[in-house]
């Protein structure tokens, strides 16, 4: 009598692909919907990132929840039905960090409020612009393009390591490949959707910043002795793992977006 075979589990690559497509679909849907939907997605991811940041600092559960609650105050005020993203909410973010460090005596935990809150504020500022859909897509997708280009160039070319003590798999070829892929994507948006030239020219340099964010999160994980920041996304790790490049890019991109429109 033949025993029933256990159902075959999808390969790690297939799982990563499926989850990656689902995440992109959610991101695109939120960008198009805008308003309260986009805010809700950003805030949910922000609170999850704060939890993972706290875990990387070996923070007790009660203290972690306190930090999330402190961060939620400025994030909630960023809602479209409240004050929205503004200098006022930027001040509240600073206040949340100050509150956390005073109450918990954990400066790195307090830094997490800024690390998470600033890019959240930046994305909300970008999305509320007149061309917000194109600008927000540009910010997110340039990071995706950078990751794809870096992975492909690193695998195909290899060569000297970028920062072997922090992330032994990253290469200088990967950095250049990520910059090239991001630049191509920026040029495409410029030609097809009128992405301003200042943003188009900045795209490859933002790719470098994205790589820096990736390396910083790798350093945090190495310091904490973990492989991933979390396990919420099968095959991808945690939210910080997926958004590490976006964290430093979003504030810089928001600054570029709100600059006066110069003609080049």
UniProtKB/TrEMBL annotation:
<comment type="pathway">
    <text>Phospholipid metabolism; CDP-diacylglycerol biosynthesis; CDP-diacylglycerol from sn-glycerol 3-phosphate: step 3/3.</text>
</comment>
<feature type="transmembrane region" description="Helical">
    <location>
        <begin position="20"/>
        <end position="48"/>
    </location>
</feature>
<comment type="pathway">
    <text>Lipid metabolism.</text>
</comment>
<dbReference type="Pfam" id="PF01148">
    <property type="entry name" value="CTP_transf_1"/>
</dbReference>
<comment type="similarity">
    <text>Belongs to the CDS family.</text>
</comment>
<keyword id="KW-0443">Lipid metabolism</keyword>
<feature type="transmembrane region" description="Helical">
    <location>
        <begin position="108"/>
        <end position="126"/>
    </location>
</feature>
<dbReference type="GO" id="GO:0005886">
    <property type="term" value="C:plasma membrane"/>
</dbReference>
<keyword id="KW-0594">Phospholipid biosynthesis</keyword>
<dbReference type="InterPro" id="IPR000374">
    <property type="entry name" value="PC_trans"/>
</dbReference>
<feature type="transmembrane region" description="Helical">
    <location>
        <begin position="69"/>
        <end position="102"/>
    </location>
</feature>
<keyword id="KW-0548">Nucleotidyltransferase</keyword>
<keyword id="KW-1003">Cell membrane</keyword>
<protein>
    <recommendedName>
        <fullName>Phosphatidate cytidylyltransferase</fullName>
        <ecNumber>2.7.7.41</ecNumber>
    </recommendedName>
</protein>
<keyword id="KW-0472">Membrane</keyword>
<keyword id="KW-1133">Transmembrane helix</keyword>
<keyword id="KW-0808">Transferase</keyword>
<keyword id="KW-0444">Lipid biosynthesis</keyword>
<feature type="transmembrane region" description="Helical">
    <location>
        <begin position="172"/>
        <end position="193"/>
    </location>
</feature>
<dbReference type="GO" id="GO:0016024">
    <property type="term" value="P:CDP-diacylglycerol biosynthetic process"/>
</dbReference>
<keyword id="KW-0812">Transmembrane</keyword>
<keyword id="KW-1208">Phospholipid metabolism</keyword>
<feature type="transmembrane region" description="Helical">
    <location>
        <begin position="133"/>
        <end position="152"/>
    </location>
</feature>
<dbReference type="GO" id="GO:0004605">
    <property type="term" value="F:phosphatidate cytidylyltransferase activity"/>
</dbReference>
């Amino acid at each position: 009598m033949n025993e029933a075979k256990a159902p075959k589990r999808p390969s790690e690559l297939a799982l990563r692909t499926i989850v990656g497509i689902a995440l992109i679909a959610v991101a695109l849907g939120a960008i198009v919907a805008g308003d309260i939907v986009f805010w809700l997605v950003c805030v949910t991811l922000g609170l999850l990132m704060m939890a993972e940041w706290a875990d990387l600092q070996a923070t007790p559960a009660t203290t972690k929840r306190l930090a999330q609650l402190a961060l939620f105050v400025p994030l909630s005020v960023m809602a479209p039905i409240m004050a929205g993203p503004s200098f006022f909410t930027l001040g509240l973010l600073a206040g949340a960090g100050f509150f956390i460090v005073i109450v918990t005596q954990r400066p790195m935990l307090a830094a997490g409020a800024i690390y998470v809150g600033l890019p959240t504020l930046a994305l909300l500022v970008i999305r509320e612009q007149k061309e917000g859909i194109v600008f927000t897509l540009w910010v997110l997708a340039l990071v995706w393009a950078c990751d794809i280009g870096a992975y492909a160039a690193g695998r195909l070319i290899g060569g000297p390591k970028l920062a072997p003590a922090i992330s032994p798999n990253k290469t200088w070829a990967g950095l250049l490949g990520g910059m090239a892929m991001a630049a191509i994507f920026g040029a495409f948006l410029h030609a097809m959707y009128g992405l301003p030239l200042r943003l188009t020219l900045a795209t490859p340099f933002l790719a470098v910043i994205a790589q820096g964010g990736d390396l910083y999160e790798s350093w945090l994980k190495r310091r904490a002795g973990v492989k991933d920041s979390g396990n919420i996304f099968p095959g991808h790790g945690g939210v910080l793992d997926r958004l590490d490049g976006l964290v430093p890019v979003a504030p810089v991109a928001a600054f570029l977006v709100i600059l006066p429109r110069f003609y080049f």
